[in-house]
Amino acid sequence: MSEIAILTTCYNRRESTINCLKSIYENIERDQNNHYRIYVVDDNSTDDTVDAVKTMFPKVNIVVSGGNLYWARGMYAAMKMAYEDNNDYYYMINDDALFRDTAFEIMMSSYHMARRECAIVGSFLSKETGEPTYGGFSRAYKLVHPSEELTPCECANWNCFFVPKTIIDKVGYIDKRYAHGGGDYDYCYMMHRLGLEILVAYDYVGFCERNSTKGTYRDNTLPKIQRMRKLFSRKEFHFPSMFHFYLKNFGIKGLLQLGILYYSKISKIICKEECS
Q1: Residues in CB range of 68: below 8 A, 6 or more apart
Q2: From the CB of residue 164, how many other CB atoms can be counted at a distance below 10 Å?
Q3: How far is CA 81 from CA 103, 230, 247, in A?
Q4: Nearest-angstrom CA–CA distance, 91 and 94
Q5: What is the pLDDT of residues 73-119, one digit of tens each?
Q6: Cα angle, residue 151 at apex, residues 260 and 198 outer, rounded to 5°
Q7: How far apart are CA 119 and CA 152, in angstroms?
């Protein structure tokens, strides 16, 4: 029997978090061959998420932070807790994902089909449109669709990302220097530098909607100055995090890419276009 850890972080998404955990337990109840531990780092939610989780899922290991971790540092804390408990396998998930009741079976089967040390990424669809939303990406940042060939990918969202302990032994935890996002892609590049593969699971594992553009830097109904502030905010293209990501993973050439990226987005804001 393997020890399997499921890790997530949350903040003020009570309904999403609860629904995600319900879908996780539907998977766990189908699997009589493994033992699961769930780790949730709550970033000091004010919407009763913690009380709801403790009431409905008393076996979940939930830790409340001081409210300044955001996503990457929350996942770092979750990884550290789970790794210190010496689990054999690790699922990194987002709490807005809804899993099919066969999701973990698909992920584990894909891992065993690979017959080599690797990570597996699960792919998601939009319930509203039926279109693919999250999963593994090619070098050109195009979503890689699931197939029986277990296609390799360049990087992956951590909506559902599966790794054995042996990979964490080599790569370590997610980089906590990121203010919010970016740590999932960064982890993929850390893996690649060590010659470790990331494969896309053979089927879709659930549903997850794309984040809304409303109220973000991409929203062209907002004043330009407001969009500019949001562009550089912690949850968007935070400059220290972006600088760290591009320099760490692409070197000096990466800083040129970063400059082009900012130029493109700032130009669109000035021209009142919706940024991609």
Answers
A1: 43
A2: 17
A3: 24, 32, 29
A4: 10
A5: 999 999 999 999 999 999 999 999 999 999 999 999 999 999 999 99
A6: 70
A7: 10
Residue 137 dihedral angles phi and psi, to the nearest 5°: -125, 145
Q: Do residues 95 and 10 make contact, with C-beta atoms less than 8 angstroms apart?
A: yes
C-alpha 135: how far from its chain's center? Answer: 9
**Interval 12-65: pLDDT, tens:** 999 999 999 999 999 999 998 999 999 999 999 999 999 999 999 999 999 999
Smallest CA-to-CA distance from 210 within 144, 261, 134 is with: 134
- Sheet order of strands, 143-144 included: 143-144, 136-137, 155-156
Q: How far apart are CA 245 and CA 235, in angstroms?
A: 15
Three-state SS annotation for 128-193: CCCCEEECEECCCCCEECCCCCCCECCEECCCEEEEEHHHHHHHCCCCCCCCCCCHHHHHHHHHHH
Of 149, 121, 118, 117, residue with least CA distance to 136: 121
Integer Cα distance of 123 and 42 in angstroms: 25
* SS3 of residue 195 by DSSP: coil
